[in-house]
Amino acid sequence: MVENQGNSEEMKSPCTSDVDPRASSSSKEGKGKRLWKKVKFQLVEYHSLPGYLKDNEYILRHYRSEWPLRQTLLSIFTLHNETLNVWTHLLGFFLFLCLTIYTATKAPKVVDLHTLQNLPEVLRNVDFHKLQMELRTCLPSLPNMPDLQKFQQELKTSLPSMDYLPSLSNWYIVELLYNCLPERFSNSNHTDVCVLHSMKEDVANIISPLMVRPITRWPFFAFLGGAMFCLLASSACHLLSCHSERFSYIMLRVDYAGIAALIATSFYPLVYYSFMCYPAFCNLYIGFITLLGISTILVSLLPVFQKPEYRGFRASLFFGMGVSGVAPILHKLILFWHQPEALHTTGYEVLMGAFYGIGALVYATRVPERWMPGKFDIAGHSHQLFHVLVVAGAYTHYRAGLVYLRWRDVHGC
Ligand SMILES: [Zn+2]
Question: May I have one GO cellular component term (predicted)?
Answer without folding.
Answer: membrane
